[in-house]
Design a protein that fits this description.
- The chain contains 33 helices and 48 strands.
- It is α+β, with helices and mostly antiparallel strands.
- Among the domains are: 246 residues, Rossmann fold; 121 residues, paz domain (Beta Complex), CATH 2.170.260; 175 residues, SH3 type barrels (Roll); 162 residues, no CATH class.
- A ten-stranded mixed β-sheet has the order 1-7-6-5-2-3-4-14-16-15, with helices on both faces.
- α2 packs across α3, α24 packs parallel to α26 and α26 crosses α27.
- The longest helix is centred in the first third of the chain and has 27 residues.
- 37% of the residues are buried.
């Protein structure tokens, strides 16, 4: 969680820090770190509280997510996977509160779901509290992840070229702080290059703080796109998730300009790194995972703005900065807190009410934000709540008295303080100690495993300001708790099954020494917050001495399996080594090339005295290296309520707007610029920086090209104006960048792709530009282009490509599509000697030949099915036909909103007048639907369970039904009740609630037979039905079994020209067809040549679906039914011929090609197959082996062979 609402506030204040990314516009990063617990919770989360997610499915999803993130970022040097281990005690209190609250929330959700008619699962639902060090789940997940990493390094070239670090749950420390230990280690030992670029994935907002405190300028945080909507549901599938980068480099520039106004006022140098350190310190006052926020200081109540304003106003009178390399300068911080306390009282005065105000409706007195006094409050004696602090003058005005009374009431009611002087002083001292502990945590690592803040609430800032400036905090490092002890400390009794059996009784037996720490009921306090997840859980802090003694008393009862969960682990530094010493291998028998160097949990922790906590000396921020920065343009800044659009909503906070300096260009200057830059690369999309090719420069009348001027045509003037207006609007309303007007434009072609080409044995980088030009205001075009940090691999010659043993695929016969390994590249003859690996293929010709017969055996016409079912359940055929499609029920919920539930089986339907069907259940051919026999059983079962639906369809024929149509017997009772109790709406509410439960029962039944989750396909699409896919799978399995351990692959050697190979490194965006002449049909044998996707490079399979975008389907098919062409013949035809011809012209590059691969893999789909072996591909990712065979056959026929 970190710091709630910080990410949104920063995004509204500094809107250009975020960048939407995809696989082809990601910056280059050397180091990629994943805070793994964010992945765990995403993949273990279900939007359906009653849907059980299997452990195997969670593990598969986690591995797929990791692989997707790796493929997205593609680190050049290091990939670090960091799992949360045992946390410091200060974090353990927050973990305990979160787990208790989570279990309580899940119980409430389950009860509400059951009350609304949803059925409970037969097996217990997944308890996310198992994502805690020391559980069996985490032990198995740890082993699974190490095995996953080992397999990837052993088999994948991309993983072999870097170091992969894994730190599991058996290594103490939070994931993000293990990562920061590693960064500090490399930084202090000067192991980082000047331009080292870091990316960290994680969901906690405190990643922003630790990234800033690292003083690594080329840093970005990867996270899923945030959409602040109640209806937004998370997904464990990264393929359907939008990702964003938060650029710390741009955030640093924003911070520089945010506080630039104090530069001429302060008495010491204005240094960005010192400003950042101070911000890290003062933002802690808003609370984090270790200490609560100060009273009335909340981000949603302008807390950050107050902190910033106080900082700006106090700095001119100080003699230096507040935070000195991770240590508080108490004297200066004291003055800052004093200044902040003035704001505190001003805010109180602004929000407080008159004491004498009496609310007639509630009979309550309210004063001070968040303070409620009931009718029994003693007003006459309220002044006695004030203590005798001499620092407050006797001449204080009424407002001061009110503030003091509120303060005292806060301490006495929230914290049950009796001796205010002593208790508040101790509270304030501990809070200050907490701030220093967290600062150390960010800058030095954990300085004490045992310290924690022992209060639920924070002191008033005015009291914090009274802490002595002469103090010095000394922390005892201690040691982390054992995993099982931490587990016992943080789990609620409702999650006791996650504990070893010997410890479970300690959570519920009345005589347990720990029983007081496992309350079944507890209070929560929003404490001026908005969301329940931000509330304070009012539970006793667990006593560590009692905890340790109790655990030791029961240690002897633990089994060896239990104790295995308590064994500390190590960091694994995995790397690929060709000729590896067995002694350095992780598992030589399984992974003969996997070197595993290990480090203990504290080996990366350096003494705080030697840690480099500043900007590295080898970094020159004035040098442009192409990383996103706010340099290159002249601009001014202004803070205002701009209502820009952030996360799809208008911002609620003030924004630091960038006002770009307007430049004026006379015709001669424009012509000079055109002569110099037209045809060259310029940078656009500032400050994110993208490449474009300059075509010309424009003013209101003239187009300036190289050594040429032409008068602009009216249509181009209008087009340029439209582009200009759109850019002005987008930059202002989404990025907070203001351009006064657009008088001068640059006509450019944006970069669409990079591709290497070969010519005479030399390699050149070829940039592909969009065919459609765009117009960019000249004021935001950068002409003196710096090196773009989205770098591509640099290949000087083909020797760099055709390395020994490097795998490639041929796109030339006689071995088209075959895998080969390089023996040698002859640069003189410009040819490649290779070993070609030839493998036999499954024989599927009979399956293709008998396609129609198989389909006819597996499907019934709608007429026949309706007749059969109608006789079986004794209903009209029209009712059966209707229930096979959509049957909509509408009703008003308790909020009087119209809701709809489809109680039809949805085996057939239409969208935009085009028929849709459900693969595996139905298909459509020659204006008729066909169904598998299993549908008969489903309809019959539906009738047995919910006869009301069928009776409704018999009684009424309507396009849309009402709830009362489904339950007509109850309608009379309701109407009669209304006559007797016309003002009693509870009757209707009870009626609706009961019937909605029945509707939910239907929906749950749909879920149980996997209908509602299945995906419909437009009937015109080319696809093989599930029954064909299952037969194809059987042939592949039988083929593998028949040759396993009997027939080895055949290898031959040969020499080929470089052009005869598909070289994936050359097609950097993988957007070009490997062979532009190739055609693609169902049943074609293909091989994956796309790296950085879940499908393994070189995986082979068969095309089982070719789905085109909707507009192309409309254009090409024009409503005609041709779904069984191209190896598919009509179910209504007796002829069994399969034509290879396809007369319809299609854009194959835009199609989604579904492939059934020979082997399952992490990230594969199981929707239409029996294993994780299907995946939706693009034609540009595939070599079509069948096409090569056909070309070879045609050539042989032409020469009479």
């Amino acid at each position: 969680m970190g710091i709630p609402k910080l990410y949104r506030w920063l995004s509204e204040r500094y809107p250009s820090i975020n960048e939407d990314i995809n696989q082809y516009n990601v910056p280059e990063f050397d180091y990629f770190y994943i805070d793994m617990n964010g992945v765990f919770h995403t993949c273990a989360h279900s939007n359906n509280v009653h849907k059980q997610i299997s452990e195997e499915k969670i593990f598969q999803d986690i591995c797929f997510y990791i692989e997707y993130l790796f493929n997205l970022i593609r680190p050049k040097k290091v990939f670090f996977l960091a799992v949360d281990g045992v946390a410091p005690r200060s974090k353990m209190n927050q973990q305990r509160s979160r787990r208790f609250r989570k279990f309580k929330e899940m119980e409430q959700i389950r009860n509400q779901a059951i009350e609304s008619g949803e059925s409970s699962p037969e097996t217990p639902t997944f308890d996310s509290n198992c994502i805690t060090p020391g559980t069996e789940f985490m032990l198995k997940l740890n082993a699974h992840l190490i095995d996953f990493v080992a397999k990837k390094i052993q088999k994948s070239i991309e993983w072999q070229e870097i170091t992969v670090i894994f730190s599991g749950c058996d290594v103490a420390g939070e994931g993000e702080h293990k990562i920061m230990d590693y960064i500090r280690y490399n930084k202090t030992l000067n192991l980082l290059d000047a331009d080292s670029k870091h990316c960290i994935y994680g969901l906690d907002a405190d990643l922003i703080m630790v990234s800033l405190s690292s003083h690594e300028p080329y840093f970005a945080i990867l996270r899923e796109e945030v959409i602040f909507s109640k209806n937004q549901k998370s997904s464990s599938d990264p393929m359907v998730t939008n990702f964003q980068l938060l650029h710390i480099s741009i955030l640093r520039d924003y911070i520089y300009h945010e506080f630039l106004e104090i530069k001429p006022k302060i008495k010491f140098p204005y240094v960005l790194e010192k400003i950042i350190d101070d911000l890290v310190l003062i933002i802690m006052l808003l609370g984090n995972d270790f200490i609560p926020n100060l009273p009335r200081f909340h981000i949603h109540k302008h807390g950050l703005q107050i902190l910033f304003d106080s900082y700006k106003s106090i700095m001119p009178i100080l003699d230096g900065y507040l935070n000195t390399r991770g240590k508080i300068h108490f004297e200066r911080f004291h003055k800052f807190l004093k200044k902040l306390s003035f704001y505190d009282q001003d805010q109180f005065n602004h929000n407080s009410f008159d004491f004498r105000y009496l609310d007639d409706k509630t009979n309550q007195i309210t004063f001070g934000e968040g303070i409620d006094l009931n009718e029994d409050f003693d007003f006459e004696n309220m002044h006695h709540l004030s203590d005798n602090d001499d620092s407050i003058s006797d001449e204080s005005n009424a407002s001061d008295d009110e503030f003091r009374a509120t303060r005292n009431y806060y301490y006495q009611t929230k914290l049950q303080f009796e001796n205010l002087d002593e208790d508040v002083a101790q509270l304030s001292l501990e809070y200050m100690r907490g701030i220093q502990w967290v600062l150390h945590y960010y800058y030095d690592g954990c300085v004490s495993w045992e310290w924690f803040y022992p209060y639920h609430y924070a002191p008033y800032v005015s009291d914090l300001a009274n802490v002595s400036t002469e103090i010095e905090f000394i922390f005892k490092i201690g040691s982390p708790l054992e995993p099982l002890i931490q587990l016992l400390a943080v789990l609620p009794s409702g999650s006791k099954e996650l504990l070893p059996k010997a410890l479970q009784k300690l959570t519920y037996l009345p005589d347990s020494p720990l029983i007081e720490f496992f309350p079944l009921k507890f209070q929560t306090d929003l404490n001026e917050k908005i969301n329940e997840y931000e509330s304070i859980v009012l539970m006793p802090f667990i006593d560590q001495k009692i905890l340790l003694k109790t655990f030791d008393d029961h240690r002897h009862e633990l089994t060896p399996e239990d104790l295995s969960r308590n064994i500390p682990g190590s960091y694994h530094f995995f790397s690929y080594v060709e000729n590896l010493d067995k002694n350095k291998a992780y598992d030589y028998e399984r992974f003969p090339n996997l070197q595993d160097e290990r480090m203990k949990f504290d080996d990366l922790r350096l003494p705080m005295e030697i840690i480099n906590k500043e900007l590295r000396s080898n970094i020159d921020l004035e040098r442009h290296n192409g990383f996103p920065r706010m340099n290159g343009l002249n601009f001014k800044t202004k803070i205002e309520y701009a209502k820009i659009k952030v996360f799809r909503f208008q911002s609620q906070n003030m924004t630091l707007m960038i006002e770009v300096e307007k430049r004026s260009f006379c015709p001669s200057i424009l012509q000079t610029m055109a002569n110099e830059y037209v045809g060259k690369i310029v940078n656009i999309d500032w400050p994110l920086i993208k490449e474009a090719k300059l075509i010309s420069l424009l003013d209101n009348k003239i187009c300036y090209e190289k050594n040429k001027q032409t008068e602009l045509k009216a249509n181009e003037i209008e087009r340029a104006k439209i582009f200009g207006r759109n850019i002005l609007d987008r930059f202002k309303n989404k990025r907070g960048i203001v351009l006064d007007s657009v008088e001068f434009m640059a006509k450019v072609l944006p970069l669409s792709a990079n591709r290497y080409s070969m010519f005479n044995g030399e390699i050149k980088l070829f940039k592909q530009w969009d065919q459609s030009p765009i117009y960019i205001p000249l004021d935001i075009v950068l002409f003196d282009c710096q090196k773009i940090f989205r770098m591509n691999p640099f290949y000087q010659s083909l020797d760099n490509i055709f390395k020994k043993n490097h795998p490639f695929y041929l796109i030339a016969n006689p071995h088209y599509g075959s895998e080969c390994s390089v023996i040698h590249y002859n640069s003189k003859q410009k040819c490649v000697s290779v070993v070609i690996h030839l493998r036999s293929l499954p024989l599927i010709e009979d399956l293709m030949k008998n396609y129609t017969i198989i389909m006819q055996k597996n499907f019934l016409s709608e007429k026949k099915l309706a007749s059969t079912v109608a006789k079986s359940i004794n209903v009209p055929e029209i009712v059966v036909r209707r229930v096979l499609g959509s049957v909509m029920i509408t009703f008003l919920n308790k909020n009087e909103n119209i809701k709809r539930i489809n109680v039809g089986l949805k085996f057939k339907g239409k969208k935009d007048s085009k028929p849709y069907c459900l693969p595996g259940y139905s298909c459509y051919d020659v204006n008729e639907y066909f169904f598998v026999p299993k549908v008969i059983e489903i309809v019959e079962e539906y009738h047995r369970k919910f006869p009301e639906v069928f009776q409704m369809l018999i009684n009424l024929n309507k396009p849309v039904y009402d709830l009362v149509d489904l339950f007509p017997d109850d309608l009379f009772a309701v109407r009669k009740s209304h006559q007797l109790f016309i003002f009693n709406s509870l009757i209707l509410i009870r009626f609706l609630s009961d019937k909605i439960k029945k509707l939910n029962s239907i929906r749950n039944w749909f879920d149980s037979i996997s209908i509602s989750s299945s995906e419909h396909i437009v009937a015109d699409a080319e696809y093989l039905d599930n029954c064909i896919i299952h037969l194809l799978e059987k042939k592949i399995i039988a083929f593998k079994a028949s040759i396993m351990n009997r027939i080895k692959e055949e290898t031959v050697t040969g020499q080929f020209l470089p052009e005869n190979f598909y070289i994936p490194e050359f097609d950097l965006e993988a957007s070009n067809l490997p062979d532009p002449k190739a055609t693609y049909y169902l049943f074609d044998r293909v091989v994956n040549i796309k790296r950085y996707i879940p499908v393994p490079f070189g995986a082979k399979g068969y095309i089982v679906g070719i789905i085109y975008p909707e507009e192309i389907i409309k254009k090409n098919f024009n409503g005609n039914n041709q779904n069984f062409n191209n190896n598919k013949t009509s179910l209504n035809e007796s002829n069994e011929t399969n034509s290879m011809a396809n007369n319809v012209t299609r854009n194959i590059e835009s199609a989604n090609i579904e492939v059934l691969f020979d082997e399952p893999f992490a990230g594969g789909s199981i929707d239409r197959s029996s294993d994780l072996n299907t995946f939706t591909m693009k034609a540009s990712w595939l070599i079509n082996v069948t096409y090569g065979e056909q070309i070879l056959s045609l050539r042989r026929q032409s020469i009479g062979r």
